[in-house]
Amino acid sequence: MEKKFYKNFKAFLFTFFFLSLSSPSTAEMQLIQISGKHVDVTLPVELVATPTSRSKGLMYRESLAKGTGMLFDFHKERPVYMWMKNTEIALDMLFADADGVIFQLHEGAIPHDLTIISSHKPARWVLEVNAGFIKEMSIQVGDRIDTTHK
Known about the structure:
Oligomer: single chain
Shape: globular
Radius of gyration: 15 Å
Number of strands: 9
Strand content: 35-45%
Strand order of the largest sheet: 6-5-8-3-2-1-9
Number of helices: 3
């Protein structure tokens, strides 16, 4: 059963990859706030909220400006599966629920790695930032991402 799931999941990602090549990005920029016991930082992020823009993510980009990120909006909580195919940049990932509470951190995702990085529980948001950001900013599980920051 696990092999069947993985095979179907790969087919799903493959389809979205090719759809993303034919569609322009629908990303928009916004400011978010990450706050908690040891962190209070505002950063500009590229918001990706459509299936096409989420499937492309940071693929094929050679860099991500320091202090910025890409925020994936899945519109509702659901299991989330990320990977690093065609991604040139080492990344940290922050998984958050619908209230913006960070429940999972993944540090140092390796460029081009095909290993699936799955949420431990349903997520609404995933924030991708340059590798080392989580440690540098002392971000912890329980901190919060405020997507309504102005």
